[in-house]
Design a protein that fits this description.
Blueprint lengths: L3 H4 L14 H10 L4 H31 L4 H21 L1 H7 L1 H21 L3 H29 L2 H24 L10 H17 L17 H7 L1 H27 L4 H26 L4 H21 L5 H15 L2 H12 L5 H30 L3 H19 L21 H16 L3
Length: 444
Amino acid sequence: MANPQAITPQLGGPAGQKMTPPMESVKAAATRGLALAPVAALLLSVAFLLLGNGLLGTLLIVRAGQEEFSSSSIGAMMSAYFSGFTIGALLLPRVIVSVGHVRTFAGFAAIASITAILHAALVEPFAWMPLRMITGVAYAGMILATESWLNAHALPSTRGQLLSIFGVVSMGSWAVGQALLNIAPPAGVTLFLIVSVLISAAVVPITLLPSHPPAEVEQEQVALRDLLSLSPLATVGALLTGLAIGGFWGMGPSFAQKIGLDVSGISAFMAAVLGGTLALQWPLGWLSDRVPRNLIIAGAALASAAAAVGVALTAEAPLPLLLAAGALFGGFGIPIYSLCVAVANDDLPAARLLGTARGLLLLNGIGTAVGPLVGGLAMSLAGPGGLFLYAAALLMVLSALAIIYRCPEHSLPVKATRCPSAPMITGALDAMIQKQDRRRSGTR
């Protein structure tokens, strides 16, 4: 997460100088590389995309519950999505290098739109599992294309602003998508059609933008086996948060359904968790730039674990208490992955940051894919609250490990890192594009 001070427009100069008019500040920002109109269109595409994804993820779990799918089947179905997303994040950069950002986005949007409709036509667990995996791959391709394109618009002086806005739009759209669940009954086909329309609408803004070549990135590769020695806290934290938070992403709506919430209550619960993330991701990032990051990770993990226990205990309590506990769980728990990436940035030389970030993404993706499976098993063994007790146990382990691990006591630099919903994979794509360009020009 970016430091709030770093993204606040500075309208004044040194003491005694005249304040710069707001319009001049806008012009200066544009001169530094903040191309406002193209970025707004990209963010609009992301908003449509994640509105559809947020609605579809919750809709499928609610519909699966109505169709009396087992918890293990629901968990496997959601794990398939995250498995597909992880596979896509690692393999699809080469596709974008070959065919370009716009064609990649449009092609995978068509695939995601088709699979959304097929979910309504084939209401069977064994049909939904491969469809969810295909959807995960498609969304990885679209998010990768939009995030890379967004990154290409920014210079170092504006990248923190754009990536922070990207994270807020992503989480906000996902949260609003939960409210769309109330438009029509989940048992019908209407909501699946709405998902398809939203995905199709996401193509319109991004296809109107000119292409900008990403900046050159030269990085060393980092093997997975080296991650633990390079940055132990970041490595363990990425995996544990994937397991804990992935269980919620996959089985949270099923938990809400099993404790007796209706459709509006399920959407409110999911929106509360995401709303908590929107409220707390900035303060946690701000603190992590001023206090040793391991202490912030330890505190956030402990607070999220306590909130997870609170969710399990308030399952039978009035809805406002459940929503408050859910908001704290998400607000403290979901940003931990970004804090772990920031720790890796502190520990490693610049040449190894990209390779490490891709390894952390893979570990987090593996955890997110496995989380719904284990979360579903916990629900089968301990009831609906078992999902959050499982998450609490993992987060408490992470908190203890973060306290043991001590960050260096030097002054922590302010760094702009991506929000949890934005996988850190576009640097690899930038490097591949530059490498291909050098080959075409005959240079090395």
